[in-house]
Amino acid sequence: MDYFKGAYRPLFEQLASLAVLEPSQIMGRDPATIPVDWREGPHAHIFKADLPGVKKENVKLEIHNGVMEIVGKQAEEDEEEEGATWHAMERPVHLSRGQLVRRIGLPEDANVEGVKACMNN
């Protein structure tokens, strides 16, 4: 019985990792997904994320059940002026309003108690 448990473990780990993938990671990048660079150093995993136009106070980083979630909320733009006419609307919706989200499954041995975050402009 223990043999089969060990033999199927890699398969179950792969399936579990798929459960935390964003749809964009399976079918191509969604423009409302935060792009992230992930590097593993000798002492830590380092993540760098781009959140254009998001203020520090509107960024939330949480870790639950081995999944890191980064959420950036965009400030709502001013209400449209009555009688105004749009001539172009080329920016993706997430750049003008809304929310950016990224979820990343962390390695089993990740020290989630030692997580540190900083934001540079």
TrEMBL record:
The lineage of its organism: Eukaryota, Viridiplantae, Streptophyta, Embryophyta, Tracheophyta. Belongs to the small heat shock protein (HSP20) family. InterPro entries: A-crystallin/Hsp20_dom (IPR002068), HSP20-like_chaperone (IPR008978), Small_HSP (IPR031107). It comes from the Eukaryota. The keyword Phosphoprotein does not apply. The keyword Metal-binding does not apply. PROSITE patterns: SHSP. SUPFAM superfamilies: HSP20-like chaperones. This is SHSP domain-containing protein. Signal peptide: none annotated. Keywords: Stress response. Residues 27-121 form the SHSP domain.
